[in-house]
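A student in our group prepared the protein record below, which I am reviewing. I have pasted the whole thing underneath without changing anything:
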Amino acid sequence: MKLIDTNILVHAYNKDSPYHLRAKSIVLDLIKGKYVISTQNILEFYSAITKRVSIPLSPPEACKKALNLYKSNAKKLVPDLNVIKVGLELAAQHNLKGGEVFDAILAATMLEHKIPIIITENETDFLKFSLTVENPF
């Protein structure tokens, strides 16, 4: 099983992205249940798509898209308290600062659920956690 990182979701819904069509294809497979995401990815998606793209979605439109992901057949991983503990320990071990802690939490979520592969364009963010990284672009 493979986890889809937030940047893939953002590219899929950002029509200005040069990776839009490839990412959209991956997200369609995600929605059909071929991949997994974390609830963290859904929240990060909402944050990014309303602010960090060339043409941000309105909050109601972003909410609709995020809830569609939430309701989809994709398996959703929910970090528990142990994941938070392990993620914080990973962040300290790798000297991560600020928002980098969220990569550690996502890695801890994957490790907890025995998901060895992440599909992301941010290869260096996850290799440090001994995960297999697939960059679809």
In short: The chain has one domain: 2-134. Strands lie at 2-4, 36-38, 75-77, 117-119, 132-134. The mean pLDDT is 96.
